[in-house]
Amino acid sequence: MAGLARFDARRTELAPQFNAQSGGESEFLGARTKRLNNFFMRAPTTRQMAIPPILLPSESAQALHRDAFFYPFHNPGPVTQQGSLWAVTDFTAENGATRIVPGSHLWDEERQPQAAEVVPAEMPADSAIIYAHNIIHGSGANSSDEQRTAVALNFTLGWLRQQENQFLTLPPEKARE
Ligand SMILES: [Fe+2]
Fold first, then answer.
1. Of 25-29, 52-56, 77-81, which gets the smallest average pLDDT?
2. For the sheet containing 81-87, what is the strand order?
3. How far is the CA of 124 from the centre of ligand 1 (A)?
4. Is CATH 3.90.1170.40 the right assignment for the domain spanning 67-176?
5. What is the DSSP secondary-structure string of 118-146?
6. How far is the CA of 84 from the centre of ligand 1 (A)?
7. pLDDT (average), residues 70-95
8. Which of 38, 80, 81, 149 could link 88 by a cystine bridge, Cβ 3.0 to 4.6 Å?
9. C-alpha 83 to ligand 1 mean position (Å)
10. Which residue intervals of the chain bear CATH 2.60.120.620?
């Protein structure tokens, strides 16, 4: 369906759906503002809006950082947490492999990495990188048309509070497994 006809079809399809809605139930939602959920079912012409290539999946690079900032230590300092990042799918520079700055766990906090010091941790699926939490790193930009999947497991000294409280999120019977 060509552009303008597609917009007309969307308007025609959405109008009765909105007419049947009532307004919001709070000041935040707006008493006269109508919202339509589950619109892929109720207005099939909206489905194509979810799949233009411009929305899929490229992602800009994450800022370089130290995970150590979760705790009040300064660098250089004690290694209180060790990270491991497991590649579920291949890690390539193009799909945003995590960027690492080797040796930066020993730097003071003022020193910023030069571009040549930043290395993408390229690796095939089923590999892992292991790193001290105070090394500078960050996800790369994903300029490919594929998704990159990883599992991050961080090992933290027992006297530090974990970022994710597994005593609450993992029931005892699951922990036993
Ligand atoms: Fe991180």
1. 52-56
2. 128-132, 81-87, 150-156
3. 20
4. no
5. -EE--B-TT-EEEEETTS-EE---B-SSS
6. 10
7. 92
8. 149
9. 9
10. 67-176
